[in-house]
Amino acid sequence: MSEADRISSLVYDRYRSLPRRGKPETGLQWTLLAAVLKISEGADGQSVQREVVALGTGSKCIGRSAMSPKGDVLNDSHAEVIARRSCVRYLTEQLSGALRGDHNSIFCPSDQRGKWKLRPGISFIFFSSHTPCGDASIIPMIDSQVQPCPPVKAEQDNRVTNQDSETGGERWSEETGGVRKRLKVSPDDAQTGDGSQAEHETAVERNAESVESDSVQQPDIHRTGAKCVPGGPADPLGPGSGYHSVGLLRVKPGRGEPTLSLSCSDKLARWTIMGFQGALLSHFLQGGLYFRAVVVGKCPYSQQAIERALNRCAHVSSLPEGFSVHPPEIMQSSLEFIHSRTNTRPSLSDAQGRVVPCGAAVSWCAVSRRPLDVTANGYKQGVTKKALGTPQARSLISKVELFHSFLELLATVDDSQLPESLRGKELSSYWDYKQAAEEYQQAWDALRSQVFPLWPRSPRELLLFCRDPPSAPNRSSLASSGQQQS
Ligand SMILES: [Zn+2]
Predict the structure, then answer these.
(1) Do residues 419 and 117 make contact, with C-beta atoms less than 8 angstroms apart?
(2) Among 46-60, 177-191, 453-467, where is mean pLDDT lowest?
(3) How far does the centroid of ligand 1 lie from the alpha carbon of residue 289, in Å?
(4) Computed from CA positions of residues 367, 371, 377, 383, in that sequence, does the dihedral angle turn out positive or negative?
(5) What's the superkingdom here (predicted)?
(6) In terms of C-beta density within 10 A (0-12 exposed, 13-18 middle, 19 or more buried), how is residue 237 classed?
(7) Number of CB atoms found within 10 A of residue 70's CB
């Protein structure tokens, strides 16, 4: 078994072991899966242990108008992002263990006061059941062994891309059979950037028989539904391989409105410099935490495209101590995710044969309390409308909940043991704590100015939330008052 297959099997096993809540309905829905694995190598260099420590599913993203200034909504519920945020919960608990002197923690003291580092032999691998949306999904047909498809006419493309539904799956179901058919031969992936690649693969398989008779064709590409960020070059939208420009930052499509969330290709590229621990935890860490490898499940895939997309930051210089360029090894598994789009065949009972993306996102991580967290539309799944905005409706991986966990961690640290970046500072909001992570911010400034000048800035007003008051008598009234405290 290849290393990539070993990794994907472990993730699929972990996924299967989770309860049904939030998973797709068989034969009706599909989803995307991503995970973080901890790799522990023995001192002898021989024994290797692989463990899934965080996992995420999901394919949705909310638009600007649904974002919350309280940090209590998940803006981006693509599997990769859910998996990373879940991993932050895991890292926070591991840090907390290290602070209590737990020798089983993945962290051990570094030589800088108040800072921690990974124990020798520990590293991380990122898994995704599919090619990340955005730049990595712009795949020349030839690269995925797909032989010529009929070229796409530009006006058909416009018709497709001007439609605004959140995912390819939904769009398919809204389209008439005729359009759907055209789309199947056009490698469009317009709205998901993720799932509809899988749709295309099916189309490709069907086309395989006619390959030989179709020898003179224009080269074509798989597409992404993520659109170029405003203010920079746009896609030419020409036929075939002239449709997209490559190497550009892209934002995810939302339901009828643009989102402020960058494509997963862009986020993964960013993590090769910034690490995946986020700004808050970087206060406590000697440096960024990086994925040494990225494993992709069986799906349309191009080694060249994904390397291009993820290694866009390879030449960044002038990074502060603790941060450096970490291009991951990228490999593909031959094993397919059970709930991928191609594995989801319409059930006979469903007369229309519609297959749609699952609306829920599952977050799981290896923590002692409440490891599972299922959301829909950015809030805990199943909360009533009335409860929206209350702490009960929040996901455990929302900004505000991760912030609270960070503050709880901070509260256990003796002043003399605080890292330099947190000593003697008057910080209150989420924004304050993120900005105070100086090295992290310096790294981000370097990356932004050298590679990603068009990366949209998060609106500051959405990051100014603070901690909940220590003993709010009535938490739901707090939410409706806009949480105006300290
Ligand atoms: Zn994505």
Answers:
(1) no
(2) 177-191
(3) 21
(4) negative
(5) Eukaryota
(6) middle
(7) 21
Tell me, in angstroms, the distance from the centre of ligand 1 to residue 123's CA: 24
Please report the pLDDT score of residue 465 as a whole number: 93
Distance 213 CA to ligand 1 centre (A): 36
Question: Measured between alpha carbons, how far is residue 132 from residues 201, 219, 264, 399 in Å?
Answer: 15, 22, 5, 23
In degrees and rounded to multiples of 5, residue 172 shows phi and psi of: -50, -45
The pLDDT tens digits for 7-18 are: 999 999 999 999
| Ligand 1 centroid distance, CA of 212 (Å) | 34
Q: What is the distance between the alpha carbons of residues 180 and 169, in angstroms, rounded to a whole number?
A: 11
Report the share of the chain in percent with pLDDT over 90.
Answer: 67
By CB atoms closer than 10 A (0-12, 13-18, 19+), residue 267 is: buried
CA of 30 to the centre of ligand 1 (A): 14
Structure tokens at 148: 């010529």
Q: How far apart are CA 115 and CA 282, in angstroms?
A: 9
- The residue with tokens 């290797």 is 48
Active site residue 438: no
Query: What does each C-alpha distance from 424 to 146, 415, 441, 467 come to in angstroms?
Result: 60, 9, 19, 19
Task: Tell me the one-letter amino acid at 397.
Answer: I
Counts of helices then strands in the chain (DSSP H, E) = 13, 17
Residue ranges with strand state E in 209-326: 227-228, 250-253, 258-262, 291-296
- Which residue among 80, 166, 199, 336 is the active-site one? 80
Q: Is the CA virtual torsion 283, 285, 288, 291 positive or negative?
A: negative
